[in-house]
Amino acid sequence: MPGLSRPTVTVRYWAAAKAAAGRAEDSVEARSVAEALEAARRTHGAELARVLGAASVLVDGVRTDKDDPRPLQEGAVVEVLPPFAGG
């Protein structure tokens, strides 16, 4: 059915998100940022879910909202950046 397929996208984790996921990235099928993040939560559990709550998200290098309704394209990269501290 047209419009129902889910593109394969990369979810890339940085800093605390990478530590919580136990890896640098995952390949998931997702139509939206929210679907991609939900797939990450299901795969990696509560610790990653906690980090995602405070994280910023980039799609193909552009900051976006976690609930951005725009469809993801095949091969998109969703990056999870936790808050950074330091100076």
TrEMBL record:
It comes from the Bacteria. Signal peptide: none annotated. InterPro entries: Beta-grasp_dom_sf (IPR012675), Mopterin_synth/thiamin_S_b (IPR016155), ThiS/MoaD-like (IPR003749). It holds the Pfam family ThiS. Transmembrane segments: none annotated. This is Molybdopterin converting factor small subunit. The lineage of its organism: Bacteria, Bacillati, Actinomycetota, Actinomycetes, Motilibacterales.
